[in-house]
Structures are given as structure tokens and as C-alpha cells.
Amino acid sequence: MKLLSIFLSIFLFSGCAIGRQLQAIPESLFYDREKAMQSWVGQPESKLVARAGAPDLVFTTAEGDRVLTWRTIWGGGGGSGISTCTRNYVIGKDGLVKSWSYDGC
Q1: Would you list the DSSP string of 27-40?
Q2: What pTM did the predictor assign?
Q3: What pLDDT was estimated at residue 64?
Q4: How many helices and strands in the chain, by DSSP H and E?
Q5: Which residues pair with 96 in a beta bridge?
Q6: In this model, does residue 28 exceed pLDDT 70?
Q7: Strand 82-91's sheet: what is its strand order?
Q8: Rounded-to-integer distance, Cα 36 and Cα 100, Å
Q9: What dihedral do alpha carbons 47, 65, 101, 83 form, nearest 10°?
């Protein structure tokens, strides 16, 4: 019984430590993602597509800008469910990346 108590204590405390580490990871991932996406602003569309591959969706806004969208499905491990990461880049009339956004990443 004492061995079981020790095992459970170690398991519970290690779970708390892992939980704190996992909570810290997304913040750094968001920063890295934003930094990487921001680095494309001012770059030609052709360079972005050459690097990222063909977008999953392309549409033209009322203002004449083009929006290129890439979708990635991820997750599913450990019962966490499946999520879709959507990355959008707005291409200006001059063919350069004007802005970006993401959701679900």
C-alpha cells in the first residue's frame, strides 16, 4: 500500500510539472509563427508559393487584393481532438505580401 501511495504521488506531481511545461510551449510557438509569417510581408507572391506550395484556396477581395489560404489538419493525439490551422496571406495588386493572419494553429 505504501508503494502504491509513493507511485501515485510521483505520478501526480510529475503530471503537474508536465502540465506547466506544456502551457509554456504554445506561447513560444505563437511568437515563432508570428515572426515567421511577418517575415513574408513585402516578399513576392511567387516566392511564398515556391516555399509553401500551392495554396488550398485563393480568392480576390472587393478591393482587388488576393488572399491565399493554406490549411493544415493536426492533432488527434491523446484525445485532444482534431484542429485545422488556417494561414492566410493577403497579396496586394503589386504582387507583394501585404498582410497575414492565422486561426486554429
Answers
A1: HHHHHHHHHHHHTT
A2: 0.67
A3: 96
A4: 2, 4
A5: 44
A6: no
A7: 57-60, 66-75, 82-91, 97-103
A8: 11
A9: -90
- Using one digit for the tens of pLDDT, what is the confidence trace for 75-95? 766 666 788 899 999 999 999
Place of cell 478591393: 63
Q: What are the grid coordinates assigned to 43, written together?
A: 516578399
- Outline where the chain has alpha helix (H): 2-38, 45-52
User: Which cell is 26 given?
Assistant: 504554445
Pairing of strands 57-60, 66-75: antiparallel
Residue with grid cell 508570428, as numbered in its chain: 34
Summarised one tens digit per residue, pLDDT across range 57-79 is 999 999 999 999 999 987 766 66
Q: Is the pLDDT of residue 15 over 60?
A: no
